[in-house]
Amino acid sequence: MRAKIEDRWMLVFAVGAAAIWLAVDRLRWVPGDPLFEAKVVAGRTMEAGIAVLREERERRGLAWDAIGDPNRTGLIGREYTDLTTTLGSLGAKRTATNPNMAGLVVELLDRAGARPGEAIAVAFSGSFPAMNLAVLAAARALGLRAVVISSVGASSYGANEAEWTWLDMERVLVERGVSRHRSVFSALGGIVDEGGGLDGTGLAAGGAAIRRSGVSLLDEGGRATLEHDVLRRMRIYREGCGGKPSVFVNVGGVLTSLGGEGEAQVFAAGVIRPGARGGNHRRGVMARMIEEGVPVVHLLDLRRLAARYGLPFDPVPLPGVPDGAVMRPRRIGQELAGGGLVALGLLGFALTRMRRKSPVPPSPGSSQPMFCFVIRSDHKTGHRGKRA
C-alpha cells in the first residue's frame, strides 16, 4: 500500500513538472522589446553622426574645449557667444551626447503613436544639437518622414559657435549620409529678443549661418509677433506633412513651441497626450498640436529623462550601444525559466509536506487491531458505545 501512495505522489510531481516545462518552452518564444532592433540601429546611427561631426570639426580647424567636451563629440559649444540666448546646463548638454539617447527617442516616438511611413513635425533649436541628432537617427530607424523647422540661437554650451551652428552640423550629416532630413525653414530664434550678443553682432552671425546652409529664412519677431509666428509654423507643418502630423517633436526651449511666459512649466518632458487646454492666445505650437489631437514628444529636462529611462547623467566616457535600461530587451524567456524552477521547487516542497501528513493504512499482518470502537454520546438514549 505504501508503494502505491509513493507512486501517486511521484505521478503528481511528474505531471506538474511536465506542465511547467511545457509552459516555459511554449512561452520562451514571446519576444522581448519589439523596438530593440530599431533602438540599436538609432543608437549606432547617432554614434556614426558623432564620429562624422568630430572629424569635420577637426578638419575645419575649430578649437576643442577639453573641459567642456571631454568626450570630443563636437556637439558642445561655449559658455557664451553672440549666438547665446539663455543660460544652459553643461551636464545636460553632455548627457544628450550619449548615443543611446537615440534609442530613448525611438521609445518615446513609439509611445506617442508614430508608425513607419508617417510624417512627424519637428522643432529644433541650437541648444541641444545632440538631441537633434538623436531625433534624426530615431526617425531614420523607424522609417519616419520628418518636417523640420530649426532655430539658430542656442543656450549656453549648445551649438552657439558662429562657425559651427546646428545648421552647419545638419548639412554635414546629410552630405555624409548619416541623416536624410534637412530643415525646411530656419529662424534666428531667441537671439531676436536678446539682441544678438553684447554688441548686437549675433543677428548678423545667425543670418550668415542660415544663408550658407541654403535653408530658407523664417523671419520671426520673437515675443512681439509670437501668435503670428506660431500660426505660420502650424501651416508649414500641415503643408509639409500633408495634413496633421502623427507626432510633434520639440527639442529644447523653442519660444514658438512653448508659447507665452510660464508655458515652459506646463509641459513635462516626455510624451504628452492630446487633451484640451485653455484659451491663452499666446499658446505655442505644442499646446495647439495637443488641442488638435496630435501627441507631443517634448525633449527637455535631460536629467529627469535620463533618470526615468535608466541612462547616466553626464557620462565620461560615452557608453557604447546598447547601454542603459531603455536599451535592454526584456528577457522574458530567462525570467520564465527562473520562474519555472521556482515553481518546480515549490511543487516538490508542497508534495513532500502532503506526503508526510497523509495517513498510511496498516499493512497486512501488522500487530494493530483490525477493528476499533467508535465512542459516541447520544443525549436521548444514553447509549455510550457501539462495535464497528
Explain this structure:
The protein is of the alpha/beta class. The chain folds into two domains: 2-30 and 331-387, no CATH class; 36-327, no CATH class. The chain has helices at residues 2-27, 36-59, 90-95, 101-112, 129-142, 166-175, 191-194, 202-213, 226-241, 255-258, 285-291, 302-308, 332-357, and strands spanning 119-124, 145-151, 160-161, 164-165, 185-187, 216-217, 247-251, 270-272, 296-299, 373-375, 385-387. Helix 1 (2-27) packs antiparallel against helix 13 (332-357), helix 2 crosses helix 4 and helix 4 (101-112) crosses helix 5. The longest helix is centred in the first third of the chain and has 26 residues, at 2-27. The chain is elongated.
Key features of this structure:
single chain, 388 residues, 2 domains, 7-stranded mixed beta sheet, 13 helices, disordered C terminus
Tally of helical runs? 13
Largest beta-sheet characterization: 7 strands, mixed
Span between termini: 23 Å
Unreliably modeled segments: 366-388
Strand order of the largest sheet: 6-5-2-1-7-9-8
Categorize the overall geometry: elongated
Topology:
Blueprint: H1 2-27, H2 36-59, H3 90-95, H4 101-112, E1 119-124, H5 129-142, E2 145-151, E3 160-161, E4 164-165, H6 166-175, E5 185-187, H7 191-194, H8 202-213, E6 216-217, H9 226-241, E7 247-251, H10 255-258, E8 270-272, H11 285-291, E9 296-299, H12 302-308, H13 332-357, E10 373-375, E11 385-387
